[in-house]
């Protein structure tokens, strides 16, 4: 299982990459394997400011639909529009082409609440 050490993680199986005051968010390799083939990613919260743990979208797989929870409070400033025509990128490249949203962080203190790669590995039993 791929759990890059340079990223932060949530108990909801999302990864976070921090660059200044912008966080890029996607779902982990573990999550995409559990969900199966991703057929649709929906994010209708572009340009909205949400609190940590609020639902910012959904990911639909062949077997199920799962909510996506925002790991950090902030404004959704970008959606990976490539996922509209290529949702399978979430399966094939969850940490690269399969990223979902970019968030302008409004509370940097919340970054400390995210899991390290080691803590996430323990959570998923990797």
TrEMBL record:
The entry's keywords: Lipoyl
Keyword Acetylation tagged: no
Cofactor list: (R)-lipoate
Pfam families tied to this protein: GCV_H
Domain of life of the source: Bacteria
Segments forming domain Lipoyl-binding: 22-104
Function: The glycine cleavage system catalyzes the degradation of glycine. The H protein shuttles the methylamine group of glycine from the P protein to the T protein.
Family, per entry: Belongs to the GcvH family.
Name of the protein in question: Glycine cleavage system H protein
Chain's gene name: gcvH
């Amino acid at each position: 299982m791929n759990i890059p050490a340079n990223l932060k993680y949530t108990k909801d199986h999302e990864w976070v990459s921090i660059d200044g005051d912008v966080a890029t968010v996607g779902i982990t390799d573990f999550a995409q394997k559990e969900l199966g083939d991703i057929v649709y990613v929906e994010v209708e919260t572009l340009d909205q400011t949400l609190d940590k743990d609020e639902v910012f979208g959904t990911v639909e797989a062949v077997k199920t639909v799962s909510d996506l929870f925002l790991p950090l409070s902030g404004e959704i400033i970008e959606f990976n529009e490539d996922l509209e025509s290529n949702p399978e990128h979430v399966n094939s490249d969850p940490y690269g082409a399969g990223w979902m949203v970019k968030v302008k962080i409004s509370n940097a203190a919340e970054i400390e609440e995210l899991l390290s790669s080691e803590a996430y590995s323990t959570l998923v039993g990797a």
